[in-house]
Amino acid sequence: MTDVTMIVNGQVRGASVPPETTLLQLLRENFNLTGAKLGCDVGDCGACTVIVDGHAVNSCLMLAGQADGRQILTIEGLASRDRLHPIQKAFENNGALQCGFCGPGVLLSAKALLDENLNPSTQEIRDALSGNLCRCTGYTKMIEAVQDAGRLLREESRTQITHARTEVTAP
Amino acid sequence: MKAFGYVLAEDLEHAIALLGEHGARAKILAGGTDLLVELKHAVHNPEIIVDVSRLRELKDIAIVDDGLHIGALVTHAEIMNSPIIRTMFPALVEAAHSIGAVQTRNLGTLGGNLVTCVPSMDSGPALIALDASVTVANAEGQRRMPLADLFVGPRKTSLKPADLLIDIVIPKENLGKPAAFEKFGLRKGQALALVNVGASFWIDREKSVFVAPRIALGAVAPTVIRAPKAEAFLDGCKISAEAMAEAGRISAMEAKPISDFRASADYRRDLVAVLVKRALTNAQALATVKEKELVA
Lengths: 171, 296
Fold this sequence. Notes:
The complex is a heterodimer of chains A (171) and B (296).
Chain A (H helix, E strand, L loop, with lengths): L1 E7 L2 E7 L5 H8 L18 E4 L2 E4 L12 E3 L12 H9 L8 H14 L5 H8 L10 H30 L2
Parallel strand pairs in A: 1-5
Antiparallel strand pairs in A: 1-2, 3-4, 3-5
Helix pairs in contact in A: 2-5, 3-4
Chain B lengths: L4 E4 L3 H11 L3 E4 L5 H7 L6 E4 L9 E4 L2 E5 L4 H6 L1 H6 L1 H8 L4 H6 L2 H7 L7 H6 L3 E6 L2 E6 H4 E3 L2 E2 L6 E8 L7 E7 L7 E12 L4 E10 L6 E2 L1 H7 L6 H14 L10 H31 L1
Parallel strand pairs in B: 1-3, 2-3
Antiparallel strand pairs in B: 4-5, 5-10, 6-7, 6-10, 8-9, 11-12, 12-13, 13-14
């Protein structure tokens, strides 16, 4: 058995699993986080995408042991209790998902992109989503949603900076 | 997946000891993007997986005395983001970018792509065109060999069971050599190459001729191959679009493609001619840009 401890969505989680367990299996079966989906199981479809130490990866292609000691973000960690994440809001507003099976992966790929670049070009968005297959909507609305999300997040960071400045200059 | 044993290598010394101990019973886990797919479909799994993915020693990109060293565990995404490689070898950035998608590029490693050794590997051609060599280690010590000697056939390398690939080295004399990578697949995203090509050459500015031209072809033979006749034709030849096109035609005759469900051999040969010409053209364009930068 392999003992693993990691931070999942801000919480320390641990388990003891057979070495052949993938990170995806660990998340779904041990931690009950079923947002990441099992699609192709060979790294083509992106339905299992999660963010590990800031990078989008296929959790079906990682052993649980390889995630030991790392920070994992799954779709369950994106929204807070009182509101959706701006990326989720933008996908909702644009009607960018239909059946939603690819959604958790697409949203996390978008998150990893926007964490590095709040104003990506259409081509950069296409590149970031090229590892996520969607068979319902086509990708146009998703690309528009990511652009909208970038806009929302840019506004948010501007507001935060303004607040921070006010606090600094306040007597 | 069927059950297997698992051991995490703590450092390079430990990894080499583990591989020496387990030999052919072991499989090496680096990025896992090929290995896990293989293990999921395997009838018999290896007894033990030696996880080398945390070896800090194999994750550096640095220029040292004898050239540019790229650690075997450097991921494709790290190659794309490396300031040294972006400045010196955009061809390697192009090649890395053409592999899989973001999620696989964040996991998959350069060393893994090379030792998996599929004929259509995208890391091979540009490195072969830059005369890269590789460092291999085992319990007896380290040795250096040309990258071309690593490739034996489809999914077959010259590595012995206890061998570990340490790094890939582009020799000092080729630092900054203009090089280009071209690939044609059925889609832009996540497609295997029907043909991929790496090319490099120096330019003798006074005589305006090709110097030390290299052409490497992928997906058109059991492994990545050079195109020696096309290279000999270009060597010392006046630089022109027509010479580049002719080198493409000669390369097409040197390729030994197969027909499969992705493309016919004839189509692949035509692609070789087109892609070699494009790669040479792009390498020349890069040389011009670099020269302008030097002047400015």
